[in-house]
Amino acid sequence: MRNKLIVGNWKMYGTVKETRKLIFQLAVQWGKRCDGVEVGVCPPFTSLFVARDELKESHLRLGAQNCHHEPKGAFTGEISPEMLSELGCYYVILGHSERRTLFGESDEVVSQKVRAALDWKIEPIVCVGETAAQRESDETEAVLARQLEASLASTMPEDAPHINIAYEPVWAIGTGKTATPLMAQSAHSFIRGQLRKKFGNLADGMTIQYGGSVKPQNAFELFSQPDIDGGLIGGASLDAEAFIDIIEAASSASQR
Ligand code: PEP
Q: How far away, in angstroms, is 55 Cα from ligand 1 center?
């Protein structure tokens, strides 16, 4: 039985002051451990330090939104996995569509980052997903297969238990449009099939999150699908009440 995994991707939101406030609301004021759910938050780099301190006594885990694949070097503006590990990051989001589209990250680069994160014992959350045009032209499965194969090219079966996949249809991110539960389930089941080809039965234990305009109103139905193991949550993770409702929906879905 897989646990659900709910991770907040704060994107470029969250000054130190805002981070303190949001984490206080989540970890101290609420702070509940929900059965069957693991929870993480990924604030911007500049807030990781303070977030780590605020999360110390809680069960919430810290994550980052990106990293470079090299351990150190002349890479102005970049952050290495070692630096994230030092700050206690448990997760790192890699290959988010905003990084792929706005910052030109290729599957090959994502694959190098995945390897580097795993080598530093940080669990990657590897994002894959089709654009609206690709879905309309019936290319969804081909795109997912290609992204998964290339983004995971650097991994081996022993890595499987430490890799999380996030299915994030690009057309659903930050748009308010969500994949229907059946549409998402069909993509997740396809993804699990691809993972099975690479990792064998280990794929059955791997976490595949859904991301794309998850809200308290649609979370339970999405997370009740057999291959949807939680969510990568953007906008709604910046509102403590909404994020908590989503975590609780994941917990209820896990008891079904
Ligand atoms: C994301 O950024 O990963 C995401 C899913 O965003 P949103 O929930 O706002 O669509």
A: 22
For residue 16, the enclosing domain spans: 4-230+248-254
Evaluate whether 160 touches 203 at the Cβ level (below 8 Å): yes
What local confidence, expressed as pLDDT, does residue 252 receive?
A: 97
In a domain, residue 242? The reply is no
Q: Name which residue sits closest to atom 6 of ligand 1, judged by CA.
A: 234
Calpha distance 256→221 (Å, rounded): 11
Q: Give 90's DSSP letter.
A: -
Q: Quick check: is 79 in a domain?
A: yes
Q: Which atom of ligand 1 lies nearest, measured to the CA of 168?
A: 5
- Asked whether the whole model's pTM tops 0.90, one would answer yes
Percent of the chain with pLDDT over 90: 96
How many structural domains compose the chain?
1
Q: Is residue 100 part of a domain?
A: yes
For ligand 1, atom 2: residue with the closest CA: 234
CA distance 238 to 137: 34
Ligand 1: which residues within 6 Å by Cβ?
Answer: 9, 168, 173-174, 211-214, 232-236
Give the pLDDT score at 206: 98
> What CATH number is attached to the domain comprising 121?
3.20.20.70
Active site residue 241: no
| Full 3-state SS string of 138-189 | CCHHHHHHHHHHHHCCCCCHHHHHHCEEEECCHHHCCCCCCCCHHHHHHHHH
96 catalytic? Reply is yes
Q: Which residues pair with 8 in a beta bridge?
A: 41, 233
* Residue 73 forms part of a structural domain: yes
| pLDDT < 50 regions, the chain | none
